[in-house]
Amino acid sequence: MLLKLDHPKLFSEIISIISDLVLEVRIKVNKEGMSILAIDPANVAMISFKLPSSAFSEFEVEKEEVLGVSLESLKAVLRRCSIRGILTMKKEENTLKIEIQDKIKREFNLALIEIEGEEKEIPILEFVSKIEMASIDFAEAIEDCSVVADSCGFVSSPDKFIIQGKGSLNSFKSEFSSDESNIQAQEANSKYSLEYLQKMVKATKITDKTIINFSTDYPLKLDFHTPFIELSFILAPRVETED
What is d(CA 82, CA 103) in angstroms, rounded to the nearest whole number? Predict the structure, then answer.
């Protein structure tokens, strides 16, 4: 296995985002490309990341490889790569060999690890509301919510999308119409953890558009896609019951 990325900074940023949610992952590499599918330790969020073989300047894979890695270790190495650096990854026995070619050539060796648990699969979900909006607007609305609350409400109708938060004393609401967003929605209302959303919206810096899918008291799916990258999150709803 030999993988070479000429511009690895974006890959480094995505690994950093994923590491906020999970500590260890299986990186799957086959002829289609590289992928990660993981669930956070609390079983609240799922992360899906795909990087096709066409994104690499060199891509040599004889058979499917599954690399168990510590994301903290991988993130620390990737941070050493500059914007103009070239990143090469090779598997050698139980080691992931990472070379960074910049002014000088540097080499890191990360021990591959066994990760417990069964292989994950992306659940089949059906949503009633889909909103495509500017990433910066979505990120700012989530941060605004965090000022007043610890959970965030998403409310949709055929021509309106609302992000709102309510604390014990204070509240926030941001309303988007079809003028600012592409809204394909029915009536829906669901609430999600801001602790998780604040980690997920860091992905807004990789693409100008964010796609939001949800239904009433139903998992949320966030898609951050570019021509070469597919990064998605699924977040369980926060359902509050009255005593």
Answer: 10
CATH number of the domain residue 199 falls in = 3.70.10.10
Show the domain range for 143: 129-221
| Model pTM score | 0.94
Identify residue 82 by its one-letter amino acid code. Answer: S
Pairing of strands 151-157, 188-193: antiparallel
Whether residue 42 is found in the same domain as residue 96: yes
The answer on 92 and 153 residing in a single domain is: no
Q: How is residue 203 annotated by DSSP?
A: G
Q: How far is CA 231 from CA 66, 109, 201, 203, in A?
A: 19, 26, 11, 8
Do 11 and 67 belong together in one domain? Answer: yes
Residue written as token pair 């000022």: 147
Sheet containing 105-111: which strands, arranged edge to edge? 58-60, 2-5, 86-92, 95-101, 105-111
Burial class (CB in 10 A: 0-12, 13-18, 19+), 121: exposed
Can you tell me whether residue 20 is helix, strand or coil?
A: coil
Tens-digit pLDDT profile for residues 15-37:
999 999 999 999 999 999 999 99
